[in-house]
Amino acid sequence: MQLLLLSACAADVPNASAKLPNVRILATGGTIAGTGATSTTTVGYTAAKVGVDALIAAVPELKKVANVSGEQVFQIASESMGNEHWLALAKRINTLLAQPDVDGIVITHGTDTIEETAYFLNLVVKSRKPVVIVGAMRPSTAISADGPINLYNAVILAGSREAVGKGVLVMLNDQINGAREVTKTNTSTLDTFKAPELGLLGYMQDNRPHFYRASTRRHTAESEFDVSALTKLPAVDVVYGHANANRVAIDAYAASGDQGLVYAGPGDGSLAAAVRPALSEARRRGIVVVRSSRVGQGIVARNGEANDDELDFVVSDTLNPQKARILLMLALTRTTDTREIQRMFYDY
Ligand code: DGL
Q: Which of 163, 197, 222 lies at the terminal end of a domain, its last residue?
């Protein structure tokens, strides 16, 4: 993967104002950088086409709220986001946030995996400075494209005092969501990002953030995870549970060398008769197994639908399967002790 670092330091920003915060925009692609054939194309467009300088130039109002500079770190549709992208992004963010002339960071990103990148960064960014991830549900060429206002709000949020220490934030549709609970709930509507039961953290209104909640879980500067010396992450995959489930995918992942497996079971992480022995065998091969749920909300209770103590499984608490995969991956960079890993699922 080639990293494109076309960067300017904050001091290079023309007419930089000492009164305004210095916000760096790291562009990765997605619909916010997408183009459609016509102004009414809102599906079937091409993501990851417009560069960071054009994104910034399209919102001249940014100059009134922050000293903004941009870097094109990569240019991809986010369904293709990989561990190597995450490691490069996290290292770049931690380098920038250690600089006194950077007050906050905005990441422009595709919405398909924005919740995963947000949660990964929530666990590995080593600063209390704001990190805000922003996307769009309509391409930049569409009538009423949402990217420009989302980017404007994200830059204000990233430069705000209120966002300091709140963890990684997802900014779309005037709503501020926390990385741990936010998820994409609709394939195409503007209000797709929600934290259905645990709720959003606040709103952007009248050019400033209004916070009403904060996460109760560890994140960013309080996190024990450090990727600074890592060049790869442990192999962890998710298997989706359903009626008539079988063990084929579990056995294939186990044979492929996975170090961890997340099972997205129906209900409270229930294990079908054909699935339980396969996961138990995977555990006996040293693979750490996390019981999660495809349901999306609620706690997966330890020793509820399965005897986790006896099987030596971990439960995901309220993390959805794709986020449980991220936490398990990072946990495995520190330990294979399932009690320690279970503690991490209750801490983060
Ligand atoms: N390909 C999708 C992505 O890059 C487009 C969705 C979007 O960014 O809104 O995530």
A: 222
112 annotated to bind ligand: yes
Give 222 Cα–ligand 1 centroid separation in angstroms. 30
Q: Check whether residue 157 and residue 240 sit in a common domain.
A: no
Predicted confidence (pLDDT) at residue 246 exceeds the cutoff of 50: yes
Domain that holds residue 270: 236-347
Residue 62 and residue 155 in contact, taking contact as beta carbons nearer than 8 Å: yes
Q: Tell whether 7 is covered by a domain.
A: no
Domain boundary among 222, 255, 276: 222
Task: Determine the residue of 31, 43, 187 to mutate for testing ligand 1's pocket, defined as the one with the most ligand atoms within 8 A of the Cβ atom.
Answer: 31
Between the CA of 225 and the centroid of ligand 1 the distance, in Å, is 28
Q: Please give the full DSSP string across 247-295, using - where no structure is assigned.
A: SHHHHHHHHHT-SEEEEEESTTT---TTHHHHHHHHHHTT-EEEEEESS
What is the mean pLDDT of the segment spanning 14-25? 88
Rounded to the nearest integer, the mean pLDDT of the chain is: 94
Residues forming the active site: 31, 111
Contact (CB, 8 A) for 219 and 179: yes
Q: Which residues surround ligand 1 with Cβ inside 6 Å?
A: 30-31, 47, 77-79, 110-112, 135-137
Residue-wise pLDDT for 165-213, tens only, equals 999 999 999 999 999 999 999 999 999 999 999 999 999 999 999 999 9
pLDDT of residue 3: 54
pTM: 0.95
Domain count, the chain: 2
